[in-house]
Write the structure tokens for this entry.
Amino acid sequence: MSEQKKTYEHVIRERWCKGCNICVAFCPKQVLTLRNGKVFAERPDQCIGCRLCELRCPDFAIEVREKDASGATHKDAADIDYDIKPEAHHD
Ligand code: SF4
Ligand code: SF4
């Protein structure tokens, strides 16, 4: 494994997001913001993958995924396979 900066993508299910701002408030890197009442990953390159947003969201509306160097997304053991398709997918 080479030492490369990890990058993350944010899978957002806008249908489930009620714009409560919890994830925005908990994010230590100010990655997230609200846009039109829904969460939006404004600075995804700042994300450290701590998953506080994912853990704190009461509605399971945001999910953080690690990307590898090629930009492909990893699924890991903690990943929950939701059956609905996300409406927004912010890299
Ligand atoms: S994983 Fe952590 S740093 Fe990344 S958006 Fe969520 S709270 Fe912010
Ligand atoms: S993603 Fe979750 S925590 Fe963030 S604003 Fe939407 S409902 Fe609230």
About this structure: The beta strands are 7-12, 32-35, 38-41, 62-67, 88-90. The chain has a mean pLDDT of 86. The CA atoms of residues 2 and 69 lie 10 Å apart.
